[in-house]
From TrEMBL:
Taxonomic path: Bacteria, Bacillati, Actinomycetota, Actinomycetes, Micrococcales
Protein source organism: Microbacterium testaceum
UniProt-listed CDD domains: AKR_AKR15A
UniProt name for this protein: Aldo/keto reductase
Every NADP-dependent oxidoreductase domain range: 14-317
A GO CC term assigned to this protein in UniProt: cytosol
Length: 325
């Protein structure tokens, strides 16, 4: 699989494996499915893996670390995130997590973008994964804590980078504008932008992507299927968009893109992955998956060549911007 480089040389495969499903996102992921996910991704050439303490209250980090422990450490890149410290909560251990993951609530998340909180978070994540270092550390969803995260928080990450504890630092968010502001404020290497550079929402193209390209900051595109609407050749009537029921007009637009895609012999998800990878600022597209079938499906989508004429036809139909074509 082809790779793209961050400015200090860290190489990311064009497709990364997002490990939220390894934390039992929405439902249980069996240990066999975890094995299949990581093994199939590795066999398919994936060498970039992304996780977070938030994913399954540490379960994703533990599972991913265990599966990567036997792989040559210099052959893969792993990122995790900071900003949510996990604290023991025996009084809620009989309950299930209330933030999207099917796991016991024996620990709870506490927002903390202070220097001490970030150092503790990284130490805890190293312990959970069993790894000796991370390659990328992201501030995780600092929307409501941006003042502290963009000063003290990113300062702590830069300090860790200068100490050689991590190779690259940045932030991961579902909004493009704060990521652009962070690039202006701080000496960062990479951002993860979820859902804002897709076939249905290219708002990151207005400011974030040009600024990142100008400053030499890599962009990892996540959420390119917009939480489901673009993940099937034809969106179902109950498709979701950004984790909510998809509006009828967006379903109609997705179907219109699918019409043109099919005329060119490709599918809507094929085009969704290729769309993000076409931008020169994008260094990787991270795709979540559960089990062998989903990982293989994602790898096949990424390997599907897209005819140049398709982009022209989408632009002429006003389904993507002329700039994106």
């Amino acid at each position: 699989m082809r790779t793209r480089a961050l400015r200090h040389g860290t190489l990311l495969t064009e497709i990364g494996l997002g490990a939220a499903q390894l934390g039992n996102l929405y439902r249980e992921t069996t240990e066999a499915e975890v094995d299949e996910s990581v093994d199939t991704a590795w066999d398919g050439g994936v060498r970039y893996f992304d996780t977070a303490p938030h994913y399954g209250l540490g379960l994703s980090e533990r599972r991913l670390g265990a599966r990567l422990a036997s792989r040559p450490r210099d052959e893969f890149v792993i990122s995790t995130k900071v900003g949510r410290v996990l604290e023991p909560s025996p009084e809620t251990a009989h309950l299930r997590d209330d933030d999207g993951f099917d796991v016991p609530r024996d620990v709870v998340r506490r927002w903390d973008f202070s220097r001490d909180g970030i150092l503790r978070s990284v130490e805890d994540s190293l312990r959970r994964t069993g790894l000796d270092r991370f390659d990328i550390l992201y501030l995780h969803d600092p929307d409501d804590h941006f003042a502290q995260a963009s000063t003290e928080g990113i300062g702590a990450l830069i300090e860790l980078r200068e100490q050689g504890v991590v190779s690259a630092v940045g932030a991961g968010m579902n909004a493009a504008d704060p990521l652009a502001e962070l690039i202006r404020r701080a000496d960062i290497d990479v951002v993860m932008c979820a859902g804002r550079y897709t076939l249905l929402d290219d708002s990151a193209a207005a400011e974030l992507l040009p600024l990142a390209q100008e400053r030499g900051v890599g962009v990892v595109a996540a959420g390119v299927f917009n939480s489901g609407l673009l993940s099937a050749p034809r969106p179902p009537a109950d498709a979701t968009y950004d984790y909510q029921p998809a509006p009828p007009e967006l379903i109609a637009r997705a179907n219109a893109i699918a019409d043109i895609s099919e005329r060119h012999g490709v599918t809507l998800p094929d085009v969704a992955v290729a769309f993000a990878l076409r931008h020169p600022a994008v260094v990787s597209v991270v795709l979540g998956a559960r089990g062998r079938r989903q990982v293989t499906q994602n790898l096949d989508r990424a390997a599907t060549p897209i005819p140049d004429d398709l982009w022209r036809d989408l632009a002429e139909a006003d389904l993507i911007s002329k700039e994106d074509a």
